[in-house]
């Protein structure tokens, strides 16, 4: 399978695409454009951005092309063993799941505009790019020559966004044999020494906790805009992040750290530790699942926790971030009618819009809070010998590493195995009903010397209690999992100089 992508007129924002389908043995084929993309569980109907489409033979003869659904076409092959689909796609949106081209940048999410042939998703896909001279490519896909990329199958292709420009900035680092690259595009001068140090620390913390990394290399792709923006999307061995404004200074850097740590943990949790309903992805329709409180809730909880454990955040900064999750939950959805599991299922309905009052909860914010409750309960019960860390490692070993989907019952079983008891109270109060969280949350927080107050307007205050014994428990909860090698210790001491 081969794609040729060009941009004849960058100001028009249109991609010109030729999709070549070889080795055809039937009198017709069906081609499908994805209706949604990994990482965002809503139908986005990318086909609305196709301006023109035709099917031809290698000699240029037009072939019959009929639309079957909003994003599916049937092509009559007329005896040809190779068919070319030529079309134009409007790439004019800058968010972490879109595509955009102008005179100085190609930002491509292949899932937006690359079609697959029914029954042939697992074949290799090759992309050739007619890039301007001097452009550099940032992408998780392996290079297949100058301005060319290769994917082992369609799933890898559409889970690998790309930036290309003559003005990309980048640095790289290595952790435990894994190569990491940080790419930046935008009007800024990165403090690479600081960025590399902090990214290396939280990457090492995550690998130390999970004990291995799923990929050999990983790419942080960052598009920094002059306007306010905050969006990140996880991918197979990369993440696409769009942030702004570019002159925000420390605020921008804090956002960069938070979203990058969150997205990196997704390399385990959702990319590989994936709900059974999403394996494999069906790009033609909704893929309903109840466990986004694991996929996004646990990831949101761990994103900032890793920054604290790694020494990138201090106690004060971490507690302030915890307070943000609490504030967002209690201000907007403390009295919501839906349970966390119901809101997970309904992501496809209204998960990415404000929605009507008191209907849904956030799988991110409430999901992070129930992960916190579970983690602290396990730690209190076992004096820190068992925790949510053990749950995530078991999910990785049993489901992520062999790449088989887990069900909500699988998650329940692993949590209760780690707990050594039934946790009916947890599933009832935190996951499957709309029971208010305040009491359970404060019960968990007391163990580590924290107390949350919720005021009548929904505002939240998280206080540190003057309790020495609880402070010791808090230190155990937040301590690093890293055991540095001699080389890593030398690197850390060099950074401090």
TrEMBL record:
Top-level taxon in the UniProt lineage: Bacteria
Residue ranges annotated for the Peptidase M61 N-terminal domain, each copy included: 2-165
InterPro entries: Peptidase_M4/M1_CTD_sf, Peptidase_M61, Peptidase_M61_catalytic, Peptidase_M61_N
Domain Peptidase M61 catalytic: 256-370
Identification of the protein by name: Peptidase M61 domain protein
Lineage of origin: Bacteria, Pseudomonadati, Bacteroidota, Cytophagia, Cytophagales
């Amino acid at each position: 399978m081969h794609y040729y992508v060009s941009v004849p007129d960058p100001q028009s924002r249109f991609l010109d695409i030729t999709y070549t389908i070889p080795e055809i043995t039937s009198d017709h084929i069906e081609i499908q454009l994805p209706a949604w993309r990994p990482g965002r569980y809503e139908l986005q109907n990318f086909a609305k951005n196709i301006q023109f489409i035709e099917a031809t033979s290698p000699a240029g003869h037009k072939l019959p092309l009929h639309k079957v659904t909003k994003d599916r076409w049937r092509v009559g092959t007329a005896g040809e063993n190779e068919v070319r689909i030529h079309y134009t796609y409007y790439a004019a949106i800058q968010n972490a799941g879109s595509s955009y081209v102008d005179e100085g940048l190609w930002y491509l999410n292949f899932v937006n505009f690359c079609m697959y042939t029914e029954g042939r998703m697992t074949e290799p896909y090759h992309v050739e790019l007619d890039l301007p001279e001097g452009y550099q490519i940032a992408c998780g896909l392996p290079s297949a020559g100058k301005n060319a990329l290769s994917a082992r199958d369609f799933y890898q292709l559409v889970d690998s966004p790309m930036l290309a420009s003559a003005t990309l900035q980048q640095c790289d680092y290595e952790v435990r044999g894994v190569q990491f690259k940080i790419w930046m595009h935008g009007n800024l001068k990165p403090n690479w020494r600081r960025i590399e140090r902090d990214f290396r620390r939280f990457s090492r913390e995550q690998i130390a906790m999970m004990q291995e990394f799923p990929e050999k290399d990983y790419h942080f792709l960052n598009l920094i805009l002059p306007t306010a923006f905050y969006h990140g999307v996880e991918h197979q061995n990369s993440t696409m992040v769009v942030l702004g404004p570019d002159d925000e200074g420390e605020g921008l850097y804090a956002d960069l750290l938070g979203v990058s740590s969150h997205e990196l943990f997704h390399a385990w949790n959702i990319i590989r530790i994936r709900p059974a309903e999403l394996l494999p992805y069906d790009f033609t329709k909704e893929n309903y699942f109840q466990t986004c409180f694991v996929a996004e809730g646990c990831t949101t909880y761990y994103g900032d926790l890793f920054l604290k454990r790694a020494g990138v955040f201090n106690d004060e900064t971490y507690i302030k971030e915890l307070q943000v999750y609490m504030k967002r939950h209690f201000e907007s959805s403390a009295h919501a009618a839906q349970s966390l599991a119901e809101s997970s299922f309904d992501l496809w309905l209204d998960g990415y819009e404000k929605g009507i009052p008191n209907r849904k909860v956030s799988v991110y914010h409430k999901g992070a809070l129930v992960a916190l409750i579970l983690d602290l309960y396990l730690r209190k019960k076992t004096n820190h010998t068992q925790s949510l860390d053990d749950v995530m490692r078991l999910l990785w070993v049993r489901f992520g590493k062999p790449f088989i989907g887990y069900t909500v019952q699988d998650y329940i079983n692993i949590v209760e195995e780690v707990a050594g008891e039934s946790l009916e109270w947890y599933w009832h109060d935190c996951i499957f009903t709309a029971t208010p969280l305040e009491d359970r949350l404060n019960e968990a927080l007391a163990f580590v010397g924290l107390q949350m107050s919720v005021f009548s307007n929904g505002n939240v205050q998280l206080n540190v209690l003057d309790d020495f014994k609880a402070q010791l428990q808090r230190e155990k909860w937040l301590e690093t999992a890293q055991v540095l090698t001699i080389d890593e210790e030398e690197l850390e001491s060099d950074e401090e100089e």
